[in-house]
Design goal:
Its EC number is 4.1.3.39. The protein is of the alpha/beta class. Helix content is 46%, strand content 12%. The structure holds the ligand CC[C@H](O)CC(=O)C(=O)O and manganese (II) ion (MN). Manganese (II) ion binds next to loops.
C-alpha cells in the first residue's frame, strides 16, 4: 500500500464546534504544530468551506482569507487544503485561494450531486490545485450509487474521492462495503472522513483502511461538528500500534491536543442525547447547533426535531427546514 495520507481538519471541521471563531494567530500556531508533527495535509477554512461565513452557515469572527494566509505562511512541507461547497462558494474564490497558496481543494456535495462539480474541478486544476471529491452523507446511498458518483468526479479531474460519514451514521460493515466498491471502481485514491455520533469514528476509519482507503481525516481532540471527528492523535496512536506508517510525530499531536485545543472547547464533546439521535437518525452533524437553538426558542425537545429531519431526509443546504420543523412541532404541541 502507498503511504497513508492523513489530513487534519481541526481548522475546518473544528471551526463548526467553536462557532467559526479561529483567529489568524491561532491558525498559524496550530499549523506550525501540525507541520512540526509532519502531518501531510492540513485543512483550513470556515466549517462550511470557502465563503461559508453567512447568516445560514454562521458568521466567522475573522476574515477567512487572513486565516488561509496565516496557514500558508506556516505550511513549510505540509500541504494546505480548503473545503469548497458549490453554491456556498463560487469559482472566483477558488482562484483567490489558489493565489494565496493553498495546495488542495476538497469539493463537497451531497453524495448524489457529483454532476454539479465539473466546473469546480476544472477550475481547481486550471489553478494548479490537487483535488478531492467529498461525497457527503454517504450513509444515505448504497455503495453502487456512490461509486457512480465517484466515477463522475474522477472524470472531472478528482485525485481522490472520499466517503464522508457526515452524520456519523455508518457502522464498520457499511464503511467497508462503500470504500471497497470505490477502490474497485476508481484508479485514484479513496478517502474516509468520520464523525463520532455512534462512538465509531476510530473504528470506522480503521475499517476504511482495511478496505483499502489511502487517505483519512482526523481533528485534534476530535474537535468537529456534532459529536466531533476521529481524534488525530488517537488515530496516529492506533496506527502506530497496527504498524501502519504515517511518519507523524505522536508526542507533538498529544501535546497540542491537550495544551492548545482542549482549552478552546465551547462545550464538552461527548456523545450526548442529541448527538446520538443525529447519528441514529442519520442527520447531518452541522445541523445540530441550529437544532438546539430552534428547540430552545420554541421550547421543544431537540430530539423530536432531529427525528423529523431524519424522516424528511434533510441534506446539507436545507438548514431552513430546521426552523420549519421546529415551528410545526411547536404548533402541534399547542393544539394538544
Ligand atoms: C458543510 C460541509 C461539511 O461540514 C463537510 C463535512 O465535514 C461533513 O459533511 O462531514
Ligand atoms: Mn465533517
Amino acid at each position: 500500500m502507498s503511504k497513508l495520507l492523513v489530513t487534519d481538519t481541526t481548522l475546518r471541521d473544528g471551526s463548526h464546534a467553536v462557532s467559526h471563531s479561529f483567529s489568524p494567530e491561532f491558525v498559524g500556531e496550530i499549523v506550525s504544530k501540525l507541520v512540526a508533527a509532519n502531518v501531510p495535509i492540513i485543512e483550513v477554512s470556515h466549517g462550511a468551506g470557502l465563503s461559508g461565513s453567512t447568516i445560514q452557515q454562521g458568521f466567522s469572527t475573522h476574515d477567512e482569507w487572513k486565516l488561509i494566509e496565516s496557514a500558508v505562511a506556516n505550511k513549510k512541507d505540509s500541504k494546505i487544503a480548503s473545503l469548497f461547497v458549490p453554491g456556498i462558494g463560487t469559482r472566483p474564490e477558488i482562484i483567490t485561494a489558489a493565489n494565496i497558496g493553498i495546495d488542495v481543494l476538497r469539493i463537497a456535495v451531497h453524495c448524489t450531486e457529483a454532476d454539479v462539480t465539473q466546473q469546480y474541478f476544472e477550475q481547481a486544476k486550471k489553478s494548479g490545485l490537487e483535488t478531492v471529491g467529498f461525497l457527503m452523507m454517504s450513509h444515505t446511498q448504497p455503495a453502487s450509487v456512490l461509486a457512480e458518483q465517484a466515477k463522475l468526479m474522477e472524470s472531472y479531474g478528482a485525485d481522490c474521492v472520499y466517503i464522508v460519514d457526515s452524520a456519523g451514521a455508518l457502522v464498520p460493515e457499511g464503511v467497508r462495503e462503500r470504500v471497497a466498491k470505490l477502490k474497485e471502481s476508481l484508479s485514484i485514491n479513496v478517502g474516509f472522513h468520520a464523525h463520532n455520533n455512534l462512538g465509531l469514528a476510530i473504528g470506522n476509519t480503521i475499517a476504511a483502511l482495511e478496505a483499502g482507503a489511502n487517505q483519512v481525516d482526523g481533528t485534534l481532540r476530535g474537535l468537529g461538528a456534532g459529536a466531533g471527528n476521529a481524534p488525530t492523535e488517537v488515530l496516529v496512536a492506533v496506527l502506530n500500534k497496527m504498524k501502519i506508517e504515517t511518519g507523524i510525530n505522536l508526542t507533538i499531536l498529544m501535546d497540542t491536543a491537550e495544551e492548545i485545543i482542549a482549552p478552546v472547547f465551547q462545550y464538552p464533546l461527548v456523545i450526548d442525547r442529541d448527538n446520538l439521535a443525529a447519528g441514529y437518525a442519520g442527520v447531518y452533524n452541522s445541523f445540530l447547533l441550529h437544532v438546539r437553538e430552534a428547540a430552545a426558542k420554541f421550547n421543544i425537545n431537540p430530539v423530536s426535531i432531529i427525528e423529523e429531519l431524519g424522516r424528511r431526509h434533510a441534506v446539507a443546504g436545507q438548514e431552513d427546514w430546521i426552523l420549519d420543523v421546529a415551528i410545526e412541532l411547536a404548533q402541534k404541541q399547542l393544539v394538544r
